[in-house]
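Field reference: sequence -> structure
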Amino acid sequence: AYYNEDTGCANHPALGNCLHVLAKVHFHLDRWTDAVKSYKDAQEIFAAGLRANHPVNAMCLWGIADIYRLQGQIPVAEKFLGDAMAIQQTYLTNSSGRTHIHLGQSNQTLALCMLYTGKIKRALLFSEDALNIRLRTAPTMHHMDIIRSKLVIADLHRQMGSIEKAKDTLKECTRSMTNILCIVNRYDQEAFSKCLLVAEYLACLAGLCSTYGFFLHAKTLYSRAYAIRYRTLGPNNTYCAQILLDAANNIRLPGYFL
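Structure field:
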């Protein structure tokens, strides 16, 4: 089972693990085409050496889905996410309902797909599911995944007009976020300048500033968020366009003065 006579290559799961790590490296170096190929190669090896519906395959499917999401190919991303979540819900949830942190990751990515297509209420539902899973499974309350879920939930509340809920949710993660940003900025300024989580935080905070009438503060925060997304995702990415749209709407609001 661990040897493919047609290709002369090993199908051992250890090789699949190497390819899975390689895919992550490609992703963080913005080589997304290579990342998808490595994920798919790992998926084939896991399917041959273990089984097609093994939970490690779900990790590959999620990785591919997240790349397509960042590229704006939402229908393709949702297809891979659906396959990943079907595996995770079957094999990573026990009889008492306790589930695995990877399912929270998939729920959060699906929420971002919903947000991208304007399905705000569904995005909030999946984000809250993701947060509940992460609160039960993350090693610490200051885990980056928990902060990420709270940031998305805060922004969704803001978009739905629930400003106080958005403000309260953002307050919950501000202290943790500040500590993390200080550490990252101190030891790796290049990583800080390209961290998408930082961009999410700045964009969410900008939206709240704009809502409360602090338009110039919002403009500064939107500019910083855009700079990070521009460096990380490229100028033609739809998430960069979203920041520009939000910044433009901020300028158009009554009471804004240059």
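Note: The CA atoms of residues 215 and 256 lie 6 Å apart.
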